[in-house]
Amino acid sequence: MAFLSDAITRIKPSPTVAMTGRAAELKAEGRDIIALSAGEPDFNTPEHIRDAAKAAIDAGQTRYTTVDGIAPLKQAICDKFARDNWLDYAPDQVSVASGGKQILFNALMATVNPGDEVIIPAPYWVSYPDIVALAGGVPVVLPCPAEDGFRLTADALRDAITPRTKWLILNSPSNPSGAAYDDTQMRALTDVLMAHPQVWVLADDIYEHLVFDGFAFATPAQVEPGLIDRTLTMNGVSKAYAMTGWRIGYGAGPRALIRAMAKLQSQSTSNPCTISQYAAIAALTGPQDYITESREAFQRRRDMVVAGLNACPGIDCATPQGAFYVYPSIAGLIGRVSAGGTKITDDEAFATALLNETGVAVVFGAAFGLSPHFRVSYAASDEALREAMSRIHRFCAGWQEP
């Protein structure tokens, strides 16, 4: 009898966590490391949110709560969806969990049966296919290359749907590419979905507020209200309010799905951190100035990083519409040899050599299902990004012919 379950053998550790951990190990050894591998704002959580958390502690709000979120937070989430997305949800249609990842995990574990297919556009966030596989489902990965703007097309979606398709996971703006769908592009997808009533939509909107150049964000159920009864609209406070460590994510959808997710959560983590829930209320209902300020900073950094990478020999970097990542191609570097003697056979070899030879940590594209690329998080200081671009340029300029 094997000790480990079949389910655990179907998944692998998160590559982004692994790269971030490796960078931390090298830094602890005294190496000069610039870590651009983690998707985490470098700004502090806004003061009024921190104050709300302290007030909750002083008020004794430190005990168990309802398993999937306190009533005031659920109401604040309903108000947010109405204000920002024109979506009408009641509090009993909302689930709050310990981060957006748990919302995704709960939804898929509560609904996916062995053999059910889940469509995942690539490049994708690294956890999507593994959570599907853990649930016994089949990840159906659809490559969305740079020439399509890293976006799923209506034709590709239509061709991928089968009688076994249960979910489409749609992340806009995207981690890792920063690609986002405008109203017209989203409408093309929702039109396909309306013709296939067995397909549910998991809309991962965690980067909703990080869009640039006047881009107008659109979520599926907002574009096509006919989908609201089979859509889970997921979001959280981590990225928009620099609250990654507070661990609050939320989702809204049909009551039967929300009840099933709460049932699962009641047997796993139970309620999310009470103090964090009160902080999240302050984030959603308090001043929103931070969002504008951080968006401006991230757009400035995006422009600097895109220009810096496109100046590197052999790298081609598209300009994303949102999030805080770029996803440049290294197709022009495959087969070359670095100054340190590493042959670049693929994007993992590139990322490994870059870290070892320059101290810049990025994540290789194969981790996100689309090569040959790598992901750079520009959620770092301007100074760190400038130095990283300089190091990457020297690294690329030092290529040898094989």
CATH class of the largest domain: Alpha Beta
Question: What is the tally of helical segments?
Answer: 14
| Helix-residue proportion | 40-55%
First-residue to last-residue Cα separation? 49 Å
Report mean pLDDT, rounded to a whole number: 96
Strand proportion, as a percent range, falls in: 5-15%
Give the biggest beta sheet.
7 strands, mixed
CATH superfamily of the largest domain: Type I PLP-dependent aspartate aminotransferase-like (Major domain)
Enzyme class: transferase
Pfam families: Aminotran_1_2 (PF00155)
GO molecular function: L-aspartate:2-oxoglutarate aminotransferase activity; pyridoxal phosphate binding
Catalytic activity: L-aspartate + 2-oxoglutarate = oxaloacetate + L-glutamate
Question: Which short descriptors sum up this protein?
Answer:
402 residues, alpha/beta, Aspartate Aminotransferase, domain 1, Aspartate Aminotransferase, domain 2, 2 domains, seven-stranded mixed sheet, three-stranded antiparallel sheet, 12 strands, 40% helix, 12% strand
